[in-house]
Amino acid sequence: MSTARLTINLQALASNWQALDAKTNVETGAVVKADAYGLGAGPVAATLAEEGVRKFFVAAAEEGAAVRQAVGPGPKIFVFSGFMEADNGLLFADDLIPLINSPEQFRRHQQAMPDHPFGIQLDSGMNRLGLEPADWAELRPKVEALNPQLIMSHMACADEPDHPMNARQLKTFREITDGVSAPRSLAATGGLLLSPEYHFDLCRPGVGLYGGMPFAEAKTVVTVDLPVIQVREVAVGETVGYGNIWTARRPSRIATVAAGYADGLHRAIGGGIDVFAGDQPCPVVGRISMDLITVDVTDLPNDPERLRILNGHQTVDDLAEAAGTIGYEILTSLGARYSRGYVE
Ligand SMILES: *Cc1c(COP(=O)(O)O)cnc(C)c1O
Known about the structure:
Distance between the termini: 21 Å
CATH topology of the largest domain: TIM Barrel
Number of strands: 19
Bound molecules: pyridoxal-5'-phosphate
Largest sheet: 8 strands, mixed
C-alpha cells in the first residue's frame, strides 16, 4: 500500500438510510450530489436503490448520468439546479427531472421539452434557489395544470433545532403550497430529525446517509487508512515539520504517513487530532503538509505499518471541527488520490 486507502462501508450506508427512513411515515429519498458527497455516486446509488430508494437528487444534470447508470430505469432523479441552458440533451438522455427555480427556467423548459416531467423548487426564505413566492403565485395555475412531479423547498438552519428560522420556513412553505396536488418535500437530514411536521410527502437526506452530523446515531461509512512511510527517533528539543511548530519534550518516535491536505486532510486541522493503531490513539504532531502527516507513535509497542485517521472513534465531524469547517466539506474534499474500496 503506497497511497492512502478510503474504504466505504455500503452496509453502514444502507443501515443509515433505513434508520432515517424509520423516523418518518413518509417516503425517504436520497441526495447523491457531488458524487455522493465524494463517496462515489455509482456504488452509493446502486446500494440505496436496492434498499428501496425511488427518488434521488443531484445538483447538476451532468451528475445524473452516473446515477441513472447505477440505478437503471425507474427511480426518479431530480436536478436541484433545474433547467440550465443546453441541458435538454442530458435531461432527456438520462430521464432526469429538473426542479424549476425561476420563471425563466419554466419558460425554457416549456419551450424546449413541454412533455418532459419537472418539479418546482420554491424559496421559503433561504434566498439561494427557488421561485420567489410572488413568481410562484403567478405561475401556480399553469404549473398545476401540468402535473409537477414534486414541489420542494430547502431549510437554512435545520441543523439547529431551536432556530426560529425553522418554524418560519415551515409556515411559509405551508402557506405557499397548501392545496397543491403534487407531492411536497421540505426536509433534508436536519429537517427530518426535527419533527414530523417537516416531513410532508418526502424527506431527502444527504449527509446523514454518509455518517455525518446532524445525524448523531449514524453508523460510520468512511474509514481512511494511511500507510507509514518511515519512523524516526527524535531527541528532546528537536522539531518536526514545516514552521517548527512541534518540539519533542521527550525522546520520541515519529511516524510519517502518506496523505496530506491534497487528500482533503486540511492543513487547518492542526492540533487535537489523532490517528489510530487499532484502538490506540497517536497524536498528529507538526503541520499537515501536502502529501505527508507526522505522528507521535512513541507510546506504541511496535512501529505500525498503517494508521487510521477516520473511523468510529474520530469522525468526519471531528476532523471538521479541528479544521473550523463542517463534515460535509471534509467528505467532499477527500481527493482523487486514495485507493478506494467498497465493502458490502
Ligand atoms: C444538499 C441538499 C440536501 C441534502 O442536505 P443534507 O443536509 O446533506 O441532508 C437536500 N436538499 C437540497 C436542496 C440540498 O441542496
